Amino acid sequence: MAVQGVLANRLRSLLTLLGITIGVASVIILVAVGRGSSASIESQIENLGTNMLTVQSGGGFFGRAAGRSTSFTFLTMKDVTALQSKADAPDIKSVSPVINVNSATISHGSASETSAQVLSTTPSYAEARKETVAAGSFITSADVANHNRIAILGPTTAANMFGSANPLGQSILINGANFRVEGVLKSKGSNGLQDQDDLVILPITTAQDLLVGESGQLSQIILEAKSSSDVNDAETEATNILTPAHHNTDGTAAFSILNQASLLSATSSSNHTFTVLLAAVAAISLLVGGIGVMNIMLVTVTERTREIGIRKAIGARKSDVLGQFLTEAVLLSILGGVVGVAAGLVGSRFKIVGVQPVVQAYAVFLAFGVGVFVGLFFGIYPANRAASLRPIEALRYE
Amino acid sequence: MLDLQGVSKVYGAGEIAVHALREVDISVEQGDYVAIMGSSGSGKSTLMNILGCLDIPTEGSYLLSGIDVTLLDDWELSFIRNRKIGLVFQSFNLIPRTTVQRNVELPLVYQRIKAGERRERATRAAEQVGLGDRLHHIPSELSGGQQQRAAIARAIVTDPAIVLADEPTGNLDSGSTAEVLDIFDALNRAGRTIIVITHENDVAARAKRIIRLADGKVVSDESKLVLA
Questions:
Q1: C-alpha closest to that of B192 among B147, B134, B145, B125
Q2: Are A319 and B74 in contact (CB under 8 A)?
Q3: Fewer CB within 10 Å, N or C, chain B?
Q4: DSSP helix/strand/coil, B71
Q5: CA distance A234 to A239
Q6: Are A356 and A275 in contact (CB under 8 A)?
Q7: SS3 of B59, please?
């Protein structure tokens, strides 16, 4: 009987269905987009190396100690040696000192740029940062020992300097000093803040000779933990080793250790907020769909007042009429939900604003369930109104 | 069978109160064929509503098959309307866009009768009113007379104690009127109790008994001599 009611007015039923369909589909797609974007950011962070710890001098990486008085101490090669101790730091696999060359100008022939990040380090940096060479080779221990004047270029820098020509073996000038290109890195893409491919890596000893001087002051120390589960242990060990030499007057550490894993969790929690926000927007559209169901059901009740009167006159009980109209509402929302789930699943197969959506099973069930519930909830009022009509009045209605 | 005792119906209250029925006593026996006549405003429709259990009298009692209907609640009234009374309206009141078959079946649906038996009984009722070949038509495909016959089939499908018809021929031409009245005659001959509310003399002429109403009161109640 309810099926007949739905079929009796196909266009109207279809439009009602559409409200729920759009609501359900948008919940599924938006949650999938949210999940997809956090998945892509997580994979970018993993690109940085999740086993990696970055040690920097100063109280806080994010300016935590900016206003605090510290007896500022720089990280030095002594710290690197201390951290390499297998006895004190069993969970640290490698230690790579890094000296940044600030405001460097790189040029080759007429090509010149100042945007590239220039840093000098040791061979273990490559593994810790998950850098691999696409051509040529990375810095070797021999390069560091012999103060070789070689440079490894990021793909963007290589393209800026040499275009499509092969950069290997060519020479470039960094702040006027001559370097031979020994390797080109594989692309890592953008991390959302900067182009990670606009990069020049030099042997640390050569940089000290030619560019930054022999102050012995390190910009950072990159640590690699044995595995991702050892990252926290490695951080503790590094803190214990460095604190005696680098502490503030109040005894707190005068350096900071940035943990990629904690960055990952911070990012994913902010992404979670983003997903919830998207879901909330979608939920509103679902609610609007529900109100659509109510609207149509109310119109239906008014339009079919006479029919309700007839049914009651020939013996339909209040519960019969209530049941019929509720069933119609639920039937509409179930149909709308099914179509919406289908549309959501199909829609999630496409890239949306550069993000590949990842469909979440909970979102599918939740959206469907809420869609049906909304239909039921908003069907109750019109159905109750229909059921409460008095037969003589309903019969008199034209 | 059917017994109204001192039935009054008042709409509104105080000075604006309208006394639609005043102390009406009517008793109808099984197998009777009664025409209730009266001009408009005489209380015919109110009486019809009360007899059909669509409305409850303000005062008095109404016994239907020994049950005092005035004491029943909404749910029980639905039950009585469904089982004891077959209603036929002036404007047919078939459900649009729904086949004759399904329209006739409808009262049985509310009795929770299974589809197979419903179909069989609906078919039988439709055949009784000569609509056996129109079962799968929807009301808008039928003539007025055919629609009214479908409505009669729906009224008798539950095998009710009385068939109550409110101006059943009011919207019909004379040919269809005759058809419908012939059906009532046949139903009455088969032992069914029929009450027809009308203001047309030729409709009332078919009845065995004519009750006339004026100003909410019974002014005459005469039974015709029936030739055996």
A1: B125
A2: no
A3: C
A4: helix
A5: 9
A6: no
A7: strand
Give me A110's structure tokens: 């007429």
Helices A10-48, A260-303: inter-axial angle, 10-degree rounding: 180
8 Å CB contact between A103 and A114: yes
Q: Which residues of B touch A318 (CB under 8 A)?
A: 74-75, 78
Q: What is the pLDDT of residue A66?
A: 45
Which of B55, B94, B95 should one mutate to test binding to chain A, selecting the residue with the greatest count of A CBs within 10 A? B95
Distance from CA of A304 to the nearest CA of B (A): 9
* Chain A residues close to B97, C-beta within 8 Å: 8
> Which residue, B188, B179, B211, B189, is CA-closest to B198?
B211
Q: 10 Å Cβ neighbour count for B181?
A: 19
A8 interfacial to chain B (CB closer than 8 Å) = yes
Are the C-beta atoms of A23 and A289 separated by less than 8 Å? yes
Nearest residue to A360 (alpha-carbon basis) of A77, A124, A27, A46: A27
List, edge to edge, every strand of the sheet that includes B67-68: B18-28, B2-11, B59-64, B67-68
User: For A31-62, how does the pLDDT look when each residue is reduced to its tens digit (9 = 90+)?
Assistant: 888 888 888 777 777 766 678 888 887 754 44
- In angstroms, what separates the C-alpha of A327 from chain B's closest C-alpha? 16
Q: How far apart are CA A177 and CA A154, in angstroms?
A: 19
Distance CA B97, CA B139 (A): 7
Residue with tokens 């609501």: A23
Task: Say if the Cβ atoms of A307 and B106 lie within 8 Å.
Answer: no
Query: Using CA atoms, how far apart are residues B50 and A95, in angstroms rounded to an integer?
Result: 98
Q: Is there a contact between B82 and A320 if contact means CB atoms under 8 Å apart?
A: no
Structure tokens at B112: 């929770």
pLDDT tens by residue, chain B, 228 residues: 899 999 999 988 888 888 899 999 999 999 999 999 988 888 888 998 999 998 889 999 999 988 999 999 989 999 999 999 999 999 999 998 889 999 999 999 999 999 999 999 999 999 999 999 999 999 999 999 999 999 999 999 999 989 999 999 988 999 999 999 999 999 999 999 999 999 888 889 999 999 999 999 999 998 876 554
CB-defined contacts A:B, below 8 A: 57
**CA-to-CA distance for B44 and A262, rounded, in angstroms?**
85
Average pLDDT (A136-157) is: 91
ipTM field:
0.91
CA A17 to each of CA A279, A281, A289, A383, B181: distance values in angstroms, whole numbers, following the listed order:
20, 19, 8, 17, 47
State which H helix or E strand residue A151 sits in.
strand A150-153
Averaged over A348-365, what is the pLDDT? 84
Q: What is the pLDDT of residues A159-202, one digit of tens each?
A: 888 888 888 998 999 988 899 999 999 887 665 566 778 899 99
Looking at residue B98, what DSSP letter applies?
A: S
The secondary structure element, H or E, covering residue B185 is: helix B174-189
- Cβ B53 vs Cβ B79: under 8 Å: no
Query: Tokens 């273990």 map to which residue?
Result: A124
CB A23 within 8 Å of CB A282? yes
State percent of chain A over pLDDT 70: 92
| CA gap B73, B80 in Å, rounded | 11
